[in-house]
Design goal:
Blueprint: E1 2-5, H1 6-11, H2 13-22, E2 26-30, E3 33-38, H3 41-48, H4 54-59
């Protein structure tokens, strides 16, 4: 991890962001004290465990395109033992 002074990180923000994506977390210091860490969006999502929404999940399913028979049993009475 590379460490950046706040004023240096502000002056070179594009580079700090690029390095966070390519090299990993970047530490930001304020008055010599480590105060923040910049990470890539991909790393952030991995850490907080973002899961795909239902639409994305279904659209990437290996079962996509399979025909399903959705016909229901239309009988009116069912035998139940209570």
């Amino acid at each position: 991890m590379q460490s950046w002074q706040l004023q240096e990180a502000k002056a070179h923000l594009s580079e700090v962001i690029r390095r966070s994506v390519q090299q990993g977390p970047q530490i930001i210091t304020v008055r010599g004290k480590e105060e923040a860490v910049l990470i890539s969006k991909q790393e952030y999502e991995r850490l907080i465990g973002i899961k795909p929404n239902l639409f994305d999940f279904m659209s990437h399913s290996p079962l996509k395109g399979i025909e399903i028979d959705w016909e229901r049993d239309q009988s009116k009475i069912r035998d139940l033992d209570l």
